[in-house]
Design a protein that fits this description.
The complex is a heterodimer of chains A (about 110) and B (about 110).
Chain A lengths: L3 E3 L4 E4 L4 E7 L7 E6 L5 E7 L3 E4 L2 E6 L4 E6 L8 E8 L6 E3 L3 E6 L1
Parallel strand pairs in A: 2-11
Antiparallel strand pairs in A: 1-3, 3-8, 4-5, 4-9, 6-7, 7-8, 9-10, 9-11
Chain B lengths: L3 E4 L2 E4 L4 E8 L5 E7 L6 E7 L2 E5 L6 E7 L2 E7 L7 E8 L8 E2 L3 E5 L1
Parallel strand pairs in B: 2-11
Antiparallel strand pairs in B: 1-3, 3-8, 4-5, 4-9, 5-6, 7-8, 9-10, 9-11
The chains are: A mainly beta (about 110), B mainly beta (about 110).
Chain lengths: ~110, ~110
Amino acid sequence: RKEVEQDPGPFNVPEGATVAFNCTYSNSASQSFFWYRQDCRKEPKLLMSVYSSGNEDGRFTAQLNRASQYISLLIRDSKLSDSATYLCVVPGDSNYQLIWGAGTKLIIKP
Amino acid sequence: DTEVTQTPKHLVMGMTNKKSLKCEQHMGHRAMYWYKQKAKKPPELMFVYSYEKLSINESVPSRFSPECPNSSLLNLHLHALQPEDSALYLCASSQVSGDYEQYFGPGTRLTVT
């Protein structure tokens, strides 16, 4: 089992719809989790941090399921500008190290 | 707008050239990172500096040589690269040691011919 796994997609979603995708992780001791978004040919940008059961920021909600070892990202009322690759990230064993998922590509269509 | 800047944005170099990538952050962060990213892949960690000292080298070939002149600057010196080293090189920073919320610069797109 990979340390961090994501469905690569692409998820093709109409504008205004709600979309959710999951990320599974293998290290049951992980305490923090992160979602980054990366636009095509741009740098990753931190979207949300999750330190407890979940986090919400506007249209975005991240939820953690420790029992099943996955985190989800829910996007409500999706916008064309939400089209991007969403990367799930979990801290590694050594300081500063992040284990990156391969990313889920999201395409919002008008 | 990102507060981590990188220069140059694009770089084309031959296998015998020596070049340097530069990164600067203006957030007072004390940890800085170099990553390499190939197309359709996640970033791969190369080096970590903490308080201007190299703390992690992820078994990177010696043709890549990092340098941290001060707490705001990070360089990556390149020499005798191979075509497979062509990639997007990202610099990132985080506030303190063990802080996993990292902020990335726009990257340098490197092509080795």
